[in-house]
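Sample 3 of the quickstart, ligand adenosine-5'-diphosphate:
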Amino acid sequence: MDSRIEIAKGDITKIDADAIVNAANSSLLGGGGVDGAIHRAAGPGLLDECRRLDGCQTGEAKITKGYRLKARHVIHTVGPIYRHGQDNAGLLRSCYLRSLELAASNGLKSIAFPAISTGVYGYPVEEAARVALEAVNDFLGNDDTLERVVMVSFDDRNLKALQDASRGV
Ligand code: ADP
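Result:
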């Protein structure tokens, strides 16, 4: 695994990085889970900017400022709602890749991800951890702008899934 990838446990809203990633919904107008936590911590300026973005499609990403967060930017991506018969892994991988592309094209050096889609969107945690780490590792293989990518777990199950997955990447 690329040495720039770090696996951590905690609250992503507290992380000091050039960007934190929000597991948003397609309206970009806020929600529960990590989305709600990021909007609460960032303050109302974030929602004002999000209102001007006209939503975001599943697997895509959009960037805003970080407002009251320690992080300078928020990259909003929309994970897939896990469904049988859909290319869940392709869409989830796309969230990570599009977010990393946005970070790199904006000259950012550090970015932190939550476990996209593993909350109310129902993506199996172990499978999601493998998709996430593979996507980040593949991207970094062709990138020399990013210096640090933090995979942030809110709970022990996600943390263990990432640690296990890191042995196979
Ligand atoms: P989704 O709709 O993409 O499933 P959720 O917000 O419901 O998004 O959950 C995504 C993941 O984010 C879950 O694993 C959840 O435990 C985690 N999470 C929730 N709050 C935070 C937080 N403050 N920091 C980091 N991760 C969080």
